[in-house]
Sequence to fold (286 residues):
Amino acid sequence: MFAPGETVRVKDEWPEANGPVHIRTPHYVRGVTGQVVRHLGDFPNPEDLAFRRPAERRALYHVRFQKGAIWPEAKPDDELLIEIFGHWLEKP
Amino acid sequence: MNILEADSDRLLKAVRALLEQKGIVSTAEVAERMATTDNASPGQGARMVAKAWLDPAYRALMLEDGTKAAEALDIPMRGMPPLGVLENTTDLHNLVVCTLCSCYPRAVLGYPPFWYKSAAFRARAIRDPRELLASEWKTIIPDTMKLRVVDSTADYRWMVLPVRPAGTETWDEAQLSAIVRDGDMIGVTIPAAA
Fold:
């Protein structure tokens, strides 16, 4: 589990390169560091649901990213708030 | 029989009968979902916003649990994804987008506008949202305000609680809800006392 305020990095993984997948982690935040805002609840893993496989419930977090960490031309204070499953997050 | 060439009304009737026979979905459940879909419109979300502007306890409930707040106004939420509500302030403006598909708070806003699903809106909303809002909606977010783009990527659906416009201090709930549009509740526009 990750706590509110904790710094996390989205895993820089690209499973779509290895075959058909269903991923709810946008490509533009892979490998980017952000901050956990809060735990939103636990939901069946969409990566399995999409293929009718038994889906374990996984923790879903709201994670905040500084726009400037993703796009250099962005207004640095602006931010992105994204739902990301815990298994895509790691401690930097 | 080729299912692609079958009469669609008969096919639907047959599938519904099978779903019922197999105990998967009852006729009552289908009727309930049809009613939910038919009743969902921006007017529902606007009622929530107007009440939140007038009633601090309701506003607190709405920010804590959007689903409960919708149900408190008899908006049917059963079987719908959890609803989260993000509050605009004088320092912060929220803009909702779904870059992966078209997640939209349908239970309280109805069908999304056609452009919500467009690749152009999705790409511009995350990359250059200030320019997008200014050029397409004449919505100017001052440099002193933080813009927060909410990418709706998973199990929640997100709506925005806009700032109550100046000049509406004496208005009642019906007057307030009448000025709240769908765009205000995903942050592409800002309500005004017009």
